[in-house]
Write a structure and sequence with these properties.
Mean pLDDT: 85
Radius of gyration: 20 Å
Structural class: mainly alpha
CATH class of the largest domain: Mainly Alpha
Strand content: under 5%
CATH superfamily of the largest domain: UbiA prenyltransferase
Order of helices and strands: HHHHHHHHHHHHHHHH
Number of helices: 16
């Protein structure tokens, strides 16, 4: 049996895990490694990629910065989250704001240390990344569309740094990146509709608050239409192996998404739409394995 003190410690660990969204970080780490193995360096032996210390420290630095980003975002959004996510907010509050800030600075310091193993350019990139996340959380988040655009850009930055590391500039990679960026940007704008009550209470200047839900939904619909273009290109023009079935599925889900978006009116509807996009992104991570089944089997066996 756990003592009261141990239960409290366990709850605080769960609270910290909730604040840094550990499940999201694990997914990003997995995505970075799968993209490195099957997209960015398909000709390199599996062992050479998996045991590449430079890649390892890039992934570690990315995970630490993202975790610290969630903390500073949670710090600035504490009051808003009480309205939008009361249950999660109560769990998050088991850890004091002072402890969160201390952890934020420690994680950023460790990220820079990890980056220093790779190169000075890596240190510069991750230092800029840290500043960018802070500036977004402190200032840009409240600016309509700019906040959404910057948030989506910051979300794909961990993949950008791996892409630069391998210096693979094939067109298909840019098309993949564009597809992911448009999905994340759409998801960020859906979150504005989902969190409109808290944003309104905290004087956030989001698109649905300033221009109304109809304009916001129109912008999201446009982004979804645009995301269909790279989807179709990856199906028709580029050789992505069995992953083309994933993109065919994406086209179906995105068309369904558009119909649901038209009918969406309440928070519950927007949560469903948010989860559809989240599902597409998560499945996409594992679908990277489908690009070349023979390559997967050869590398595993």
């Amino acid at each position: 049996m756990f003592s009261r003190k141990n239960k409290l410690l366990l709850l605080k660990l769960l609270s910290l895990f909730s604040v840094v969204r550990g499940y999201n970080i694990l997914m990003i780490v997995l995505a970075q490694y799968l993209a490195s193995i099957f997209i960015l360096s398909p000709d390199l032996p599996l062992r050479e990629v998996v045991f590449d210390l430079n890649l390892f420290f890039i992934v570690v630095a990315s995970a630490l910065v993202i975790a610290s980003g969630y903390i500073i975002n949670n710090f600035y959004d504490a009051e808003k989250d009480l309205i939008n996510k009361p249950k999660k907010s109560m769990l998050d509050r088991l850890v004091s704001q002072r402890f969160k800030l201390t952890t934020y600075f420690i994680l950023n310091f460790l990220a820079v240390v990890a980056a220093s193993y790779v190169s000075f350019r890596a240190v510069f990139f991750f230092s800029s990344y840290i500043f960018g996340i802070w500036f977004y959380s402190h200032k840009l988040k409240k600016v309509p569309f700019v906040g959404n655009f910057v948030s989506a850009t910051l979300a794909i930055a961990p993949f950008f740094v791996v892409f630069v590391y391998y210096k693979n500039f094939e067109t298909v990679i840019f098309v993949h990146a564009l597809f992911l960026f448009l999905l994340i940007l759409s998801r960020e704008m859906i979150k504005d509709l989902e969190n409109i009550k808290g944003d309104l209470a905290q004087n956030y200047k989001t698109i649905p608050i300033i221009y109304g839900a109809k304009i916001s939904k129109l912008c999201i619909a446009l982004l979804i239409f645009l995301s269909l273009i790279p989807s179709l290109l990856l199906i028709i023009k580029f050789d992505v192996g069995l992953m083309n079935y994933y993109f065919i599925g994406c086209v179906v889900f995105l068309i369904l998404f558009l119909f649901l978006l038209i009918k969406a009116k309440i928070k519950k509807h927007y949560v469903w739409l948010h989860n559809i996009l989240k599902f597409i992104i998560i499945v996409g991570v594992f679908s990277i394995l489908l690009i070349d089944i023979d390559l997967v089997l050869n590398r595993i066996l």
